[in-house]
Amino acid sequence: MSGKNKFGFGPLDAGDVSPRKRDVGPMGAAVREAASSLNESSENLVEQRRLNAADAKAFRLAQEEGRVLISIPLDEIRTDDLPRDRLDLSAVSTSDEMEELKASIRERGQKEPIEVFLTEGGYQLKKGWRRLNALQQLRQESGDVRFAKAVARVSEGPASRIDLYIDMVEENVIREDLSFAEMAQVAIAAANDADMEGQGADELVGRIYASLHKMKRSYIRSFVYLLEVLGEDLKFPKAVARNLGVEVARKLQSNPALSANLCNALLKVEGPEDQAEILRRFATEVSEPPSEKAGERVRQKNVKYEFHVGSAKVTARRGECRILSDVDFLSVDRRRLQKAIEAFQTVLDGA
C-alpha cells in the first residue's frame, strides 16, 4: 500500500517541521506597551492621590492648631473682645521700646507673627498688641503697602474664654514683661466677663496663672485685692513695687476700715513717687484695730467680697448673692429650699 494519501503526499517527518514563531508583532507590542504604561500611570496616580490626601490632612491639622501663617489686612483685625494685659496702652504705644520695634519692622519686616482667633464678627487679636500697633503706626506714617497687612496665626478651633485669657497673657508672663498690677487687672477683667460663669478674680488667678509659682500667684492676689479696694484712686498701679503692694494689701485686709483714709490721701498724688511715699507711710503706720461698723462701710464700698461656709463659696455683690456648692440643688425638695431661702431673708431683714 502506498504511503501517499489521495492528495499525493506522504506523512510528514516530525524532524522536518520547524516550530511556529511566537514573536509579538508590531500591533501586539504597541498594545502591551500601552497596557504597561497605563498600569504604571494608575499606580502613580493612586500614590499621588494618597500623598495629596495626607498633605491636606496635615494642613488642616496645622491650621486648626494655629501653625499656619496668613497675611490679614490690618483693618480686619479687631481688639475689642479681650481686655489687653497692659494698663497704660497709650504710654506703651509712644514708648522708646515701640520706636525700636517699629525700626526693626521697617528694616527687616515683621518676623514674629501675631495671633488672632475667629469670631462671628471676624478676626480678634489674641497676642501681639505691640506688633499690631507698630504696623498700624508705620502704615499711617509712611503709607507703605508693606505695612498694610499683618502676618498672623489663626486659631480656628473652638476655645473657652479662660483659654483665651491664658493665651493672651502667656507670652508676656514668660518674658516677665508684666507688672503684678497688670496681671491682677487681667484677673479682675476676666471676673467681670459675662462668659466666665461668675468666677471671682481670686479664683481666676489660679487658673490664668496656673504655670506660675504659688508665691507669685499669692502676690497677684494681693494686687487684686489692692486694685478692687482702691479702684481709680490708685492712679499709678503699674508703678507700685511688689513688696510695697503686698504690705499695703495685707494691712487693708486686716483692717478694711483704713481704706477710706488711704483713698483720700491718694487723691492728692501728682506722680508715681508721691503715690509710693503715701503707700509706704500707710504700710508703716500703726493703726487702730478694725471696728465692725467701719468694716461694714468698706464692704459696701467694695464691688464685691467673698467668703466660705463649709465647702460652699459665697460671692456678694450689689443686688446679687451667689452660692457655689457641691450640693445638687435640683435634688433638694422645692419647699425645703424655699424655707431655707425664707430663713436667709429673715436673718437679712433683722440685721
UniProtKB/TrEMBL annotation:
<dbReference type="GO" id="GO:0007059">
    <property type="term" value="P:chromosome segregation"/>
</dbReference>
<feature type="domain" description="ParB-like N-terminal">
    <location>
        <begin position="70"/>
        <end position="173"/>
    </location>
</feature>
<protein>
    <submittedName>
        <fullName>Chromosome partitioning protein ParB</fullName>
    </submittedName>
</protein>
<feature type="compositionally biased region" description="Low complexity">
    <location>
        <begin position="33"/>
        <end position="44"/>
    </location>
</feature>
<dbReference type="Pfam" id="PF02195">
    <property type="entry name" value="ParB_N"/>
</dbReference>
<dbReference type="InterPro" id="IPR003115">
    <property type="entry name" value="ParB_N"/>
</dbReference>
<dbReference type="GO" id="GO:0005694">
    <property type="term" value="C:chromosome"/>
</dbReference>
<dbReference type="InterPro" id="IPR037972">
    <property type="entry name" value="RepB_N"/>
</dbReference>
<dbReference type="InterPro" id="IPR036086">
    <property type="entry name" value="ParB/Sulfiredoxin_sf"/>
</dbReference>
<dbReference type="InterPro" id="IPR050336">
    <property type="entry name" value="Chromosome_partition/occlusion"/>
</dbReference>
<feature type="region of interest" description="Disordered">
    <location>
        <begin position="1"/>
        <end position="44"/>
    </location>
</feature>
